[in-house]
């Protein structure tokens, strides 16, 4: 992991086409401005983690339904 120190108004570049600028610094927050091409997905980490958790929950529900379906069909064939 690279750790950089920037002051308000300073920026850093990621590659050739992404710029991150420090807009404001508060007591416990930092406001950032991100300039990137529209095809670059920018998502807060906690939202990405929530999306993954939701996808896993949906997959688990599908597995549960599949198992219930198999068990139900086994009962009818006995």
Structure description:
The protein has 78 residues and is α+β, with helices and mostly antiparallel strands. 42% of the residues lie in helices and 23% in strands. The chain contains one helix and three strands, in the order βββα. A three-stranded antiparallel sheet has the order 1-2-3, with no helix packed on it. The radius of gyration is 23 Å and the shape is elongated. It starts with 10 loop residues before the first strand and ends with a helix. The model has no long low-confidence stretch (mean pLDDT 87).
Instruction: List the quaternary state of the chains.
Output: single chain
Q: Let me know the largest β-sheet.
A: 3 strands, antiparallel
Note poorly predicted spans.
none
Radius of gyration: 23 Å
**Structural class by secondary-structure content:** alpha+beta
List descriptors.
single chain, 78 residues, alpha+beta, three-stranded antiparallel beta sheet, 3 strands, 42% helix
Question: Care to give the gist of this entry?
Answer:
With 78 residues, this protein is an alpha+beta fold. The chain has one helix at residues 45-77; strands at residues 11-14, 18-25, 30-35.
Per-chain topology:
Elements: E1 11-14, E2 18-25, E3 30-35, H1 45-77
Antiparallel strand pairs: 1-2, 2-3
């Amino acid at each position: 992991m690279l750790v950089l120190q920037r002051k308000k108004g300073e920026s850093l570049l990621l590659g050739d086409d992404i710029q991150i600028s420090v807009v404001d610094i508060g007591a416990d927050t930092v406001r950032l401005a991100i300039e990137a091409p529209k095809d670059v997905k920018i998502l807060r980490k906690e939202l990405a983690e929530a999306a993954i958790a939701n996808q896993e929950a949906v997959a688990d529900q599908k597995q549960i339904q599949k198992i219930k379906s198999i068990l139900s069909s086994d009962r009818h064939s006995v």
